[in-house]
């Protein structure tokens, strides 16, 4: 039986930090399901369909990576697709507080689903989708922060 892990997020947009976590998770799990979740607290610049496309054309090139969207609770989604764990990335100590609360709540909701924390690779520790979007909005150089396709799509979104 394959060990599957769900990597949930907004991925607006996918960054090289996200891709690094996916590659590293593939060393531990047989399959990584990158799952775009609806977050009512966020207003993404890319539609769900655009984010699915960006992820399929970057992370999804590996046959062990599946890209999907979902709504509702991530633990319910994980159970539905037969995953045994949820992947969460940590960039800094400040991430740990909120991620620990989320992991404990998920554990309460489903004792069968584990949460696995991976530290972001040092070269990506400062990257977030929010920072990337801000840099793109003001014409900043995004090379090395996001895949080339994502850089092109961000430039299209923020053309003045």
UniProtKB/TrEMBL annotation:
Kindly list the residues the record flags as site (Transition state stabilizer).
18
GO terms, biological process: coenzyme A biosynthetic process
- Residues bound to substrate are 10, 42, 74, 88
Q: What are the entry keywords?
A: ATP-binding, Coenzyme A biosynthesis, Cytoplasm, Magnesium, Nucleotide-binding, Nucleotidyltransferase, Transferase
Subunit structure, as described in the record? Homohexamer.
In which organism is this protein found?
Dissulfuribacter thermophilus
Q: Name one GO molecular function term.
A: ATP binding
Q: Which residues bind ATP?
A: 10-11, 18, 89-91, 99, 124-130
Q: What is its EC number?
A: 2.7.7.3
**What residue ranges carry the coiled-coil annotation?**
none
Q: Which cofactor does it need?
A: Mg(2+)
- Family per record: Belongs to the bacterial CoaD family.
Q: Where is the Cytidyltransferase-like domain?
A: 6-134
Q: Which GO terms describe its cellular component?
A: cytoplasm
**HAMAP family, per database record:** PPAT_bact
Q: Which protein is depicted?
A: Phosphopantetheine adenylyltransferase
Major site of localization recorded for this protein: cytoplasm
SUPFAM superfamilies cross-referenced by the UniProt entry: Nucleotidylyl transferase
Q: Where in the cell is it found?
A: Cytoplasm
Q: In which pathway does it act?
A: Cofactor biosynthesis; coenzyme A biosynthesis; CoA from (R)-pantothenate: step 4/5
Cited function: Reversibly transfers an adenylyl group from ATP to 4'-phosphopantetheine, yielding dephospho-CoA (dPCoA) and pyrophosphate.
Q: Which reaction does it catalyse?
A: (R)-4'-phosphopantetheine + ATP + H(+) = 3'-dephospho-CoA + diphosphate
Give yes or no: UniProt keyword DNA damage.
no
């Amino acid at each position: 039986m394959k060990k599957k892990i769900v990597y949930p997020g907004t991925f607006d947009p996918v960054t090289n930090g996200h891709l690094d976590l996916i590659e590293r998770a593939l060393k531990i799990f047989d399959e990584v399901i990158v799952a775009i979740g609806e977050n009512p607290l966020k207003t993404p610049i890319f539609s769900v369909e655009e984010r699915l496309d960006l992820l399929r054309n970057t992370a999804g090139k590996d046959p062990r990576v599946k890209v999907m969207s979902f709504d509702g609770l991530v633990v319910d989604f994980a159970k539905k697709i037969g995953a045994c764990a949820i992947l969460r990335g940590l960039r800094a100590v400040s991430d740990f507080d909120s991620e620990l609360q989320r992991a404990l709540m998920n554990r309460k909701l489903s004792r069968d689903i584990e949460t696995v924390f991976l530290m972001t690779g040092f070269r990506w520790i400062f990257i977030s989708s929010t920072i990337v979007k801000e840099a793109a909005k003001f014409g900043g150089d995004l090379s090395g922060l996001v895949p080339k396709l994502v850089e092109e799509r961000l430039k299209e979104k923020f053309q003045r």
